[in-house]
Design brief:
The chain is α/β, with parallel strands linked by helices. The chain has helices at 3-18, 23-31, 37-44, 104-120, 139-154, 175-179, 197-204, 210-214, 216-221, 233-246, 285-292, 337-352, 370-374, 377-390, 405-410, 434-441, 443-448, 452-466, 470-475, 488-498, and strands spanning 51-53, 76-83, 86-93, 124-128, 161-165, 168-170, 182-186, 191-193, 228-230, 298-301, 309-316, 319-326, 357-363, 395-404, 420-423, 428-430, 481-482. Helix 12 runs parallel beside helix 14.
Length: 516
């Protein structure tokens, strides 16, 4: 064969591989409102940066006529490219080839790219649109899934792992995304469930659609499995590109920094009036975050799940920080089981990847009631406590109003190795709220009074004046400084700069036993 003919053969095979399951299958994918695997990679990565690996891999399975249906790539596209000029690895299931089902070869390609990402130290992004295990290959496909899961676990906390679920992910296919750091879903076309509607109907007699069982909105509001939900794939991939801006390449690097044109000493007088005088009146904690962060830019995570606590990323003087904040606007900012899990996992991610944690606190306590107790609020709350205690990155807390009881302890108190704790003058730091404390401490006086209700209100005011303020805690060193709210941005930036070279260690051990 001549040299020219060999070059032509290469071009023909390359073109054939890029067609995946063929023009008809691609058209069906578009008719469903879905993009192809290659179109998704092009949206995700910087233009012309993608370099493909294993384009010509084919399945060697020969059962059920598979030997006659070999397709280049075998249903998965793997390779690397850049996002904002930074290296990332990517794999994208091709639904046009055997419904994106996972074969032995597909698994081997994913495992190979996972290993490369870990060796080089760069994020890996998986784009999931798969019908599950390739049934014709039997246990080979199950073994393949397990190899992927193992790598997900081994590289957890080593490189950022991100999953985009842009089609079905059923059965064992859900566990790789579940083991990654962040999951993105798109409405109407994304589904995640262990058992589909037909099996649910047969076993539990429930009539439920795929969307009702495992759609994007279900997982963003009820289960908390999805971290980000979008209306289109284009928006989804834009979201991933933005998330990557906040993440370091690996656990040995510092998070990226950007040029900041927002003045370090910018003051916002409105912060002095944002917390209501009435202790039970709600306000929006996000309004505080937006006023403090560079250019009012806050990248929220799990916005629709457990909204009584807020998590996300932002910049202070160009440096990435992770934010955890109680939200008085929902359930008075109380901590329940879901909020605990949401915050704990985020704190552990930030700690794994060297991202300082800033906590804004206004919490009346943990959610009471039989439902919370029976569903494990003690265990879930302990997860949050464990995460903060374990974290060795710079940790700063700002108490804006309530900091009561065990919830005060959990929200990065000084005794959990919180580095700097600021309090606003409106802060109330106590074992419990003035009402409950007064009813216990002054029970006899109140009962003996001519007007018990008037006496109760008198004692509540007395307790609030003596104890429900930041100065008692400050006098004991549990609060480092009581600050004027409008200075918060400046104080946080100076504290983060001061803590830049912080070193903290945990006792040598294989790993702890977090209360799962």
């Amino acid at each position: 064969m001549s040299r020219e003919r060999k070059i032509l053969e290469l071009k023909e095979k390359t073109e054939q591989a890029r067609l995946g399951g063929g023009p008809e299958a691609i058209e069906k994918q578009h008719q469903k409102g879905k993009l192809t695997a290659r179109e998704r990679i092009n949206l995700l990565l910087d233009p012309y940066s993608f370099e493909e690996i294993d384009m010509f891999r084919v399945s060697n399975a020969d059962a059920f006529g598979l030997q006659d249906k070999q397709i280049y790539g075998d249903g998965i596209i793997t390779g690397y490219g850049t996002i904002h000029g930074r290296l990332v690895y990517v794999y994208s299931f091709d639904f046009t080839v055997y419904g994106g089902s996972l074969s032995k070869v597909v698994a081997e390609k994913i495992v190979k790219i996972q290993a490369m990402a870990a060796k080089v130290g760069a994020p890996i992004i998986g784009i999931n649109d798969s019908g599950g295990a390739r049934i014709q290959e039997g246990v080979d496909s199950l073994a393949g899934y397990t190899s992927i899961f193992l790598n997900n676990v081994l590289y957890s906390g080593v490189i950022p792992q991100i999953s985009a679920v842009v089609g079905p992910a059923a059965g064992g296919a859900v566990y790789s995304p579940a083991l990654t750091d962040f999951i993105f879903m798109v409405r109407n076309t994304s589904f995640m469930f262990l058992t589909g509607p037909k099996i649910v109907k047969a076993v539990t007699h429930e009539d439920v659609s795929s969307d009702e069982l495992g759609g994007a909105d279900v997982h963003s509001t009820k289960s908390g499995i999805s971290h980000f939900t979008y209306d289109s794939e284009k928006e989804l991939f834009e979201g991933i590109r933005k998330l990557v801006c906040f993440l370091p390449q690996n656990n040995l690097e510092e998070p990226p920094s950007v040029e900041c044109h927002d003045p370090v000493d910018r003051l916002d007088a409105e912060l002095n009036y944002i917390v209501p005088d009435e202790p039970h009146k709600p306000y929006d904690m996000k309004a505080i975050l937006l006023k403090i962060l560079d250019n009012g830019d806050f990248f929220e995570i799990q916005e629709y799940f457990a909204p009584n606590i807020i998590i996300g990323f932002g910049y202070l003087n160009g440096h990435v920080i992770g934010l955890v904040a109680n939200q008085p606007k929902y359930l008075a900012g109380v901590i329940d089981g879901n909020a605990s899990i949401k915050a704990a996992r985020f704190v552990r991610f930030c700690d794994a990847f060297n991202i300082p944690i800033v906590t804004f606190e206004d919490v009346p306590g943990f959610m009471p009631g039989t439902q919370q107790e029976f569903t494990g609020i003690i265990r879930h709350g302990a997860k949050m406590l464990y995460a903060y205690a374990e974290a060795t990155v710079p940790k700063i807390t700002v108490i804006t109003r309530k900091a009561y009881g065990g919830a005060f302890c959990v929200m990065n108190s000084k005794h959990l190795r919180g580095d700097v704790l600021y309090a606003w003058p409106s802060a109330e730091i106590a074992v419990m709220g003035p009402e409950g404390a007064s009813e216990i401490i002054f029970a006899k006086e109140i009962k003996a009074a001519e007007d018990p209700e008037a006496k109760l209100q008198e004692k509540i005011s007395e307790y609030r004046e003596k104890f429900a303020n930041p100065y008692v805690a400050a006098s004991k060193g549990f609060v480092d400084e009581v600050i004027e709210p409008k200075l918060t941005r400046y104080k946080l930036i100076k504290a983060i700069e001061m803590l830049h070279n912080k070193r903290d260690e945990n006792p040598p051990k294989k790993h702890g036993n977090i209360p799962l």
